[in-house]
Amino acid sequence: MQIEITDKRRNEVEADAEIICVVAKDMDHKWVEDREILKIAGFKGEQDEVCFLAEKRRLYVGAESIGHDDIRSAFAAAVRALRKTGVKSLKSGLYLGKCSAQNVKAMAEGLIFGDYDFDLYKSEKAKHPIKKITICHEDFNGKDIDFQKAKGYIESAEKVAHATNYTRNIVNMPPDDMTPKMLALKAVALAEENGLECTVLDEKGLEAENMGAFLAVSRASEHPPRLIHLAYKPKNPKYRVALVGKGLTYDSGGLSLKPAEYMVTMKADKAGACAVLGIMKAVSELKLPIEVHGIIGATENMIGGNAYKPDDILRAKNGKTIEVRNTDAEGRLVLADCLCYAQEKVAPDYLLDFATLTGACVVALGEYTTGIMGHDRALKHSFSKAATNAGELTGTLQFNRYLKKLIKSEIADVCNISSSRYGGAITAALFLDHFIEDEYKNRWLHLDIAGPAYVEKPWGYNPAGASGAGVRMTVKWFEQIIKQAEKDDNHR
Ligand code: BES
Ligand code: ZN
Ligand code: ZN
Asked: Distance, CA 213 to ligand 2 centroid (Å)?
């Protein structure tokens, strides 16, 4: 699907059909040419509602507002509906709203998301009949935008949307096909294509790095673990950032085995790792002036005679001992070692981790929202702002000293689960905090994507299954801190 922008007006462009977006409250407005027919058809202009006037070759789609995320969603719905028709080429005007850049990007992202399917394992593949979409230089409110700039926005939105779909595809892969080894091969392929550095450690490498916690989790699996370290190093970077991803290619729970109904979907426990891969892909294609390191702990959590056990005491890379009381709280063990590795090897300005870490986070915020945790209020705020601007939902969960006490251990430095059944998302983050050195405390963010990373029913422009959560918000945050750094440079 090719997205093009032209300086022509809508009536000067040839296409099989046109997308017209209508905000519910404007339904009776005189510019809605077909308002009478639409009324008869029962079209109300509700968000994502579509009505195809086949004879007129017009697809009307509703939106609650012309805010960027409503536009993103409406354009995805429009493409999804038009794919069922015989239409091959489309045109649309602009819906610039408050922030032109954001809205142009949202249109392009919506168009690409509407055309996404995961059909790798279907004998009958999804059809993608729409080959070309022309966006005409004509805004419905008469607002103007620099044509060259708009072109650039579309190109960068395409990169971000394709990186998101790339993440979705890897998350959706079944566990026996996307093993730790395969995930490492994916990373190597990405590194080759995008000119990244890539180092992969196997079990011996993990032993040499004293990663006792990560190794324990991986022990009972037939598929050996991998630590993947990707690096994108542009010239004169403004910052150096380390991204750490939880890459559980399968989480059976281990000896603290999950009940059958909770085990399905646990192929998606690698979504943090896949988000890191997608972000690496996007930043290198966008050529952002930030040095980015992606560090992934890839393993399965399985059962077997050599499995690690509740009651075991593990020693992490930083020397701290961990009492295991539940082998299903494995993500934090893998992340503990990977976070230590990231601080030691990268010495980053910012340290972010992405993980489908706790069911408790889904209980707290609902399925669609990422939990943001960390010590620094300004950092959490700047990240959540970026997420909102990218069209991703987040909620901040606050640390407190009482929850901190709940992971104390009588016989080791820390326990891998809380003594209370409440506040599990935060106590998991406070466990990770034991592996963050003092100088990194205020540069660290923990992002629990257990909810939005994988939802079995479609929501908005997200399909059933993987959503690619984490990719858009992080790229947006990078763009935001680059802008800030440029401003600061100018004031100096
Ligand atoms: N991978 C799960 C968390 C999860 C749950 C992700 C649901 C996505 C959807 C994690 O490893 C886990 O099992 N966590 C336990 C922690 C508990 C044992 C303290 C949980 O959330 O129940
Ligand atoms: Zn688990
Ligand atoms: Zn897990």
From this structure: 14
Listed by start position, the domains of the chain span 2-141, 167-490
Buried b (16+ CB within 10 A) or exposed e, 414-427: bbbbbeeeebbbbb
Is 327:256 a contact under the CB 8 Å cutoff?
yes
Cα(367)–Cα(164) distance, integer angstroms: 18
DSSP 6: E
Strand partners, 298: 226, 247
Q: Is the pLDDT of residue 492 over 80?
A: no
Q: Helix (H, G, I), strand (E, B), or coil: what is residue 2?
A: strand
Q: Which atom of ligand 1 is nearest to the CA of 268?
A: 8
pLDDT tens-digit map of 290-315 = 999 999 999 999 999 999 999 999 99
Question: Taking Cα atoms as reference points, which of 51, 53, 42, 54 lies closest to residue 22?
Answer: 51
CATH number of 2-141: 3.40.220.10
Model confidence, pTM: 0.98
The ligand whose atoms approach the alpha carbon of 425 most closely is 1
Pick the CATH number of 167-490 from 3.40.720.10, 3.40.50.10540, 3.90.25.10, 3.40.630.10: 3.40.630.10
Distance CA 60, CA 48 (A): 10
If pLDDT is split at 50, 70 and 90, which confidence band does 30 have?
Answer: confident
**How far apart are the C-alpha atoms of 275 and 244, rounded to whole Å?**
10
pLDDT, tens digit, for every residue of 391-403? 999 999 999 999 9
Residue 72 host element (H or E): helix 68-82
> 168 CA distance to ligand 1 centroid (A)?
20
Q: Which of 332, 443, 472, 476 is catalytic?
A: 332
Spell out the SS3 assignment of 264-308: CCHHHHHHHHHHHHHHHHHHHHHCCCEEEEEEEEEEEECCCCCCC
190-242 pLDDT, tens digit each? 999 999 999 999 999 999 999 999 999 999 999 999 999 999 999 999 999 99
